[in-house]
Amino acid sequence: MYKVKVFVTLKESVIDPQGSAATKALQKLDFPEVQDVRVGKYIELKLEKTDKDIEVTVHNICKGLLVNKEVEDYRFEIEEVVAQ
């Protein structure tokens, strides 16, 4: 079995209203060192082992459902889980 951690973020060229609001709020809470916040999402998948290439499968999952390719970027980490 595989555990896949997917990290989705807005592309740098896309305005992040949530991040802007968080930046302002943190500065008002006396964290002036915070200059910018970008908000994203974290998705965790558990996949059974198959004959398919796991990286190709994860890319297809991300492109097909989890990520809006127009405004978001993604990266992922794959960890093989050993049954105990």
TrEMBL record:
Top-rank EC class of the record's enzyme: ligase
Entry keyword Ligase: yes
GO CC annotation: cytoplasm
Pathway in which the depicted protein is active: Purine metabolism; IMP biosynthesis via de novo pathway; 5-amino-1-(5-phospho-D-ribosyl)imidazole from N(2)-formyl-N(1)-(5-phospho-D-ribosyl)glycinamide: step 1/2
Record's catalysed reaction(s): N(2)-formyl-N(1)-(5-phospho-beta-D-ribosyl)glycinamide + L-glutamine + ATP + H2O = 2-formamido-N(1)-(5-O-phospho-beta-D-ribosyl)acetamidine + L-glutamate + ADP + phosphate + H(+)
EC number: 6.3.5.3
Subcellular location: Cytoplasm
Keywords: ATP-binding, Cytoplasm, Ligase, Nucleotide-binding, Purine biosynthesis
GO molecular-function term, one example from the UniProt record: phosphoribosylformylglycinamidine synthase activity
GO BP term, pick one: 'de novo' IMP biosynthetic process
Main localization category: cytoplasm
Described function: Part of the phosphoribosylformylglycinamidine synthase complex involved in the purines biosynthetic pathway. Catalyzes the ATP-dependent conversion of formylglycinamide ribonucleotide (FGAR) and glutamine to yield formylglycinamidine ribonucleotide (FGAM) and glutamate. The FGAM synthase complex is composed of three subunits. PurQ produces an ammonia molecule by converting glutamine to glutamate. PurL transfers the ammonia molecule to FGAR to form FGAM in an ATP-dependent manner.
Assembly mode: Part of the FGAM synthase complex composed of 1 PurL, 1 PurQ and 2 PurS subunits.
PANTHER family listed in its UniProt record: PHOSPHORIBOSYLFORMYLGLYCINAMIDINE SYNTHASE SUBUNIT PURS (PTHR34696)
Family membership noted in the UniProt record: Belongs to the PurS family.
The name this protein goes by in its record: Phosphoribosylformylglycinamidine synthase subunit PurS
Naturally occurring in which organism (per UniProt): Lederbergia citrisecunda
Gene coding for it: purS
